[in-house]
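Dear support,

We are seeing what looks like truncated structure output for some complexes. This example has two components. We would appreciate it if you could run it in full and send us the complete token output so we can diff it against ours.
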Amino acid sequence: MAAGETLGVVGETGCGKSTLGKAILGVMPGNAQVRGKILLHGKDLLTLDDESFRQLRGKDIALIFQDPMTRLNPLLKIEDHFIEEIRAHEDVPRDEARARARVALESMGIPESRMRNFPHEFSGGMRQRIMIALALVMRPSVLIADEPTTSLDVIVEAQILEILADLRRAYKMALLLITHNLGIVAEVCDRVAVLYAGKVAETGSVRDIFAKPIHPYTQGLLKSVIHLETKELSSIDGSPPDLVDPPTGCRFHPRCQYAQEICTREVPALVEYREGQSAACHFGKDFV
Amino acid sequence: MIAESVRPSEGASSLLAVEELVVHYPVKMPFLQSLLIRDKPVVHAVDGVSFALRPGEILGLVGESGCGKTTVGRAVLRLADPTSGHIRFEGTDITNLREKELRPLRTKIQIIFQDPHASLNPAMSIGRAIGHPLEIHGISDDPEEIRQAVLTIMREVGLTPEELLYDQFPGDLSGGQKQRAVIARAMILRPRLLVADEPVAMLDMSIRARVLELMLDLKARHNLTYLFITHDLATAKFVCDRIAIMYLGRIVEIGPAKEIYADPKHPYTRALLAAIPVPDPTKRGPKVLPRGEVPDAIRPPAGCRFHPRCRSVLPSCGWEGRDFVEFLEERWLDERTAQAEANLGPIDAWNYEGLAARREAPENVAGIPETIRRILESGPPAFAAAVSSIGFEEREIVVRFRRPDDLRPKLVEGRSVECLLY
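Here is the complete output from our reference environment:
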């Protein structure tokens, strides 16, 4: 991801999209085995010790969740969340931290008079804006947003998405937007990665993926979206697999109408079929 | 009364008729506090809703969370008690029936909830769960007869291989299969009306269509009638014959789905449609969104409940003292403005009641009415035009608004709209 870029990570329940966000932030449960590399400005985060990672978290990479109450402490006033966050990373007096909190909150439309309120005294949309302000108060270079609008109504959702787009432009921040909603991806993302059963099925620019998807899963997923222009319903047979015992070969093969013998045997590699557009399908070239 | 609604004579021909339904929930508060407050606050979940459901049609009840759509659905099943108004089913007034009298009715009206997982007892096998209503309603006590009925309905809803799935538990099923089991359980009593409350919202996109197809298929085969409750305008458009758009306990627009989607009349319907993300990156563009969020249903706004957020608002739509105070608060988010207008602040000094906003007058009142007038000019023109007076009363500055005009549903191009623009 480049600075200022928005990458959408889409997929259905259990495809691993939230786990991906958590792994980048290093907040996996103790029994998780994390392998591979996560490079931030060229530095591999997986080689960091706990303390260095803790310093980085919130400062360089921040996360916003679906439910603001998983981030906001119900017993803490709004301003104290900010003061705590700022002082965890920088040695500044409380007053200065409070002043910075005020600016961050006011930029999100939360007046100073509400800074001493508790989280439950705010509406859902306001809480979401508070959480965004909190994630951005340290000006991180990467923001991971995990279903940031799923619990919100469609009008507030649109408001929050506009705020995120403005912020990304203003701060040149890379935004990783995790969502199951393809409409949101189409509206705010530059690039998209389609996840299926823990693997990237396809990745490319938003325009290419929506206009000429290559992977049969991407094709099926796009067709199954019900939108205002929908004339005919469409769906993908079967359901996403159990990841305790994922299917052999291509994990999508049991649901794929084009599956051949090779698909049950060999894991397809992610191949670039068009400039900037890659898919993990043995028959990718047939769909180009 | 809303133009779409039925007069008693028409009530007989409709399967379900809801007339001026009101459902208020008391606000939970500590006992001692409840003794001290005379006018106990209530949540105005549903505040005068009327519609009729003809046999064989699908009526969509569409709106955002907290608009009262689920409460209407629950009231139809008498799972929520109406505060006032009437609910007629097959011509019989069921509003005040006792539980015992309701029993036979419950075989004819069934409900499907959003979360199939929560709707199924994890310790009851799928087959037993689906056949359970037959036992409860005393329709059959012959185990073999029940089993055969269950297997038949399982085949019908696509829960196959039915012999195998019969003895499995909800935990063994996928989300889509669980929702099919819930539908089978609702269908086994051969109901006439199904209330479907967000039946596909919890399902993954790739399988939603299959469950919707099943519901449409069942409807066609059994001449079912649906009250389809959803927040998803796109799904409603595909599924429903008619739709009712709800906002804060009221139906703001109701009519044939085709006409409403082609040319929405109520500004709220327009806003909802405009806000839906479009899955086509070539159609991106800035959106015209309503201000703010849905207000608290304990104290809904005066006049048209959408007026504080409406982009087409008129001076007569229901402006009140609260709108003025909220306007000041938003305005003073900007520190420089707040400082420049410090002689009016702070925000906490302002109170509102009904059509008036007031605060204690400071020592020096010179120029205050002019400042207020200037501030009002910066808001929506209808807002400033709605102010009837700015003056001093008993050492208080008082800003008063004109009375709102009467709001009644009007018939506009084939649908009923509750908006003063028409």
